[in-house]
Specification:
The complex is a heterodimer.
Chain A (H helix, E strand, L loop, with lengths): L1 H5 L9 H5 L8 H43 L2 H4 L3 E2 L4 E2 L2 H30 L5 H16 L2 H27 L14 H25 L3 H9 L4 H30 L2 H6 L17 H8 L5 H37 L3
Antiparallel strand pairs in A: 1-2
Helix pairs in contact in A: 3-13, 5-8, 5-10, 6-8, 7-8, 8-10, 9-10, 10-13, 12-13
Chain B lengths: L10 H6 L8 H20 L1 H14 L5 H5 L13 H33 L3 H14 L3 H16 L4 H25 L3 H9 L4 H30 L2 H4 L20 H9 L4 H29 L6
Classes of the chains: A mainly alpha, B mainly alpha.
Chain lengths: 333, 300
């Protein structure tokens, strides 16, 4: 280094010695080419995921095109599904999808927010908290087809008794107006609520944990009880995130397939009764696709497109709410 | 303090409010709600234990060697096993990993190292998030339209393609956060030595982030193992062994459970329980390994 410093020219110190050292040197031509090649490959793969989503939307639309032209909007407002007469309508499925998802959300929302409170507000020891958190997360790991099997052989027999009693004594209430013959809206919604519980719990727990500790501490300092703090400080502050959690859970419920295909009864009708069989969009696809002919496949693609529009809208809404509330909470930190 | 006392005559009265009686309405409500909340949380765990109990009760009786080595029995037949379904599930998952891993992983490299906050990166990240919310049955519809219609038959390849659509966003988003967690000091040191960005990524960033990336891949795998909806009309089912032909229908554990759950034959139903036990065992083991592998000390 001392030598090269001596041979200083107008262009600056001569670093050619240093460049030749094995420790640090500028990249060779091959390395430069490889570097720019790698960069382009990485960009291509980054664009790949955009293309993948575009391809999913495009392929379904392409195959649904004929059916959309044939059936138009009447497809959404009629409830016949008859492949022999080539008459298709999905009103009952759309209503069934929304009904089961709303019911599941009511149950999972209430339970999920409660569990999130227990897991984030210091009710139990941290070790117990961790165990409970993992158990709830494991609920999400059980495949939905296993929940379907469990639903058929455990849940349906379990709810049949209470359902019969409710029908006999409160049959005049629209929700209990039919007899539970086996599969139906109620068992399907119950299993659905178990399946979205982990989503709702995890996201609303994060929202509650993000509430600055000093807000709660200030309320405790004024003499509030734990639940007064929860109702007057924690929940109002975290309400945006909890709402986002509910919307994302709803989005998950809308697209859930197997448990519903096995438990909802696959009947092309819609009724308010919790004990009547019904159908959902995803269950319709699961039950009819494997044996469908060309005409029916077109109609099923149309139904798939409707399902895609509904779920993507709900999910985008949920993500948007989450994004906005994270920004709002930053001001409180 | 002593001087202030004469000026606050209510002091003794206030102090009494520190020792709240359990019978006071506020405390009663508080205790009641606490009991209710903890009770509900315990109640919500009942399904998991019920599922696991039923799997052991009804599935374990069929656990014999023949379960793993024999083909699925036809309607009304005795004996047989779920060997072809186990092999089939592994084949489908392998195919989907082969498709999803390069796409998800390189996509993550782009997002973490090149994309930054650029337009393409923002759009790509958004698309990946949207794909995580895509109902799994729609991945099946996509693979049906793309592969089954084109090749003219249900196939292992179509099943793998459907699963891959579900795996890509998970692999991509978890790998991105693993790559981003690599300390920038390490990268700066390498840049300072004259390394190109490609060298830094390949020799420093990726080797450091490998554990996190593996976790993401394992979680995606665990999810894919149990997926049924995308396989119903892509992989379909087969009562025979996989013979190396990716363009033919293939058996899988999850579709087997679905088909046999509604079967009128008791033997097939018990095979469905056994298959569920095997499937859940696979999934839980992968999940636990993935969680233990990434658990950071501060989380304890």
């Amino acid at each position: 280094m001392a030598d090269t410093g001596m041979k200083q020219t107008a262009a600056g110190p001569d670093l050619s010695e240093a460049f030749r050292s094995p420790v640090s040197r500028p990249p060779s031509a091959w390395q430069k080419n490889f570097d720019s090649g790698f960069k382009y490959v990485a960009h291509a793969f980054g664009a790949g995921v955009v293309l993948l989503l575009a391809a999913v939307v495009f392929e379904v639309m392409r195959h649904a095109k004929t059916a959309i032209a044939d059936y138009g909007l009447g497809f959404l407002t009629s409830s016949t599904w008859d492949a022999n007469r080539a008459q298709f309508g999905i009103l009952a499925e759309i209503l069934g999808t929304l009904y089961t998802s709303v019911l599941a959300l009511c149950i999972a929302g209430f339970l999920g927010v409660t569990i999130a409170l227990v897991l984030s507000q210091g009710f139990v020891h941290r070790r117990v908290e961790l165990v409970m958190k993992n158990v709830i997360e494991l609920l999400a790991a059980i495949p939905s087809v296993v929940y379907g099997l469990w639903g058929i052989f455990v849940l349906v027999p379990l709810v049949r008794g209470p359902a019969g009693w409710l029908h006999e004594h409160f049959g005049w209430v629209p929700f209990f107006s039919t007899r539970l013959s086996g599969p139906g809206i109620l068992p399907a919604s119950l299993v659905l609520s178990i399946m979205i519980l982990p989503t709702v719990t995890a996201i609303s727990r994060e929202a509650m944990a993000a509430v600055p500790k000093r807000l709660a501490a200030a309320a405790y300092g004024l003499g509030a009880t734990r639940w007064e703090v929860i109702f007057k400080v924690t929940l109002p502050t975290a309400v945006g995130g909890i709402f986002g959690a509910l919307v994302l859970g709803f989005g998950r419920a809308l697209g859930e397939t197997m448990a519903l295909a096995m438990l909802v009864g696959n009947a092309n009708v819609f009724g308010l009764s919790l004990f009547s069989p019904g159908n959902t969009l995803a269950a319709l696809l699961a039950n009819h696709f494997p044996e469908a002919g060309a005409v029916e496949v077109g109609a099923l693609m149309y139904a798939a497109l409707v399902l895609m529009l509904i779920t993507l809208t709900v999910n985008a809404l949920g993500s948007f709410i989450m994004l906005r509330t994270t920004r709002e909470l930053k001001g409180l930190g | 303090m002593a001087q202030a006392a004469p000026n606050s005559p209510n002091l003794t009265e206030r102090r009494s409010s520190f020792n709240r009686s359990l019978a006071e309405p506020r405390t009663l409500v508080n205790t009641g709600l606490t009991v209710l909340a903890v009770g509900l949380s315990v109640f919500a765990m009942f399904p998991l234990f019920s599922v696991l109990y039923m799997l052991l009760l009804k599935g374990a009786v069929s656990l014999k060697l023949s379960l793993f080595t024999e083909l699925t029995p036809g309607a009304g037949m005795e004996g047989g096993g779920i060997g072809n379904a186990i092999v089939g599930t592994l084949v489908v998952v392998l195919v989907s990993t082969a498709i999803a891993l390069p796409l998800g992983f390189m996509g993550a490299v782009y997002l973490a190292e090149y994309g930054g906050e650029s337009k393409l990166a923002t759009v790509a990240r958004f698309c990946a998030k949207v794909l995580t919310g895509l109902p799994s049955i729609l991945a099946g519809v996509f693979a049906y339209a793309l592969v089954v219609v084109t090749t003219g038959s249900f196939s292992a390849l179509a099943g793998g393609a459907a699963m891959a659509v579900l795996m890509v966003p998970t692999v991509m988003l978890t790998s991105e956060s693993a790559l981003r967690a690599v300390p920038s000091k390490m990268k700066m040191a390498a840049f300072g030595m004259g390394a190109t960005r490609a060298q830094v990524v390949l020799r420093i960033v990726i080797p450091t982030a490998i554990p996190g990336i593996l976790t993401g891949v394992m979680l995606a795998l665990a999810r894919a193992l149990g997926e049924t909806a995308p396989l119903l009309f892509t992989g379909l089912f087969s009562d025979y062994w996989f013979e190396g032909k990716l363009l033919e229908p293939i058996a899988s554990l999850s579709v087997l459970i679905y088909n046999f759950a509604g079967s009128p034959f008791e033997h097939q139903v018990s095979l469905a329980w056994a298959a569920s036990l095997v499937l859940v065992a696979f999934v839980l083991v992968i999940n636990v390994v993935a969680q233990v592998a990434t658990r950071r000390p501060e989380e304890h």
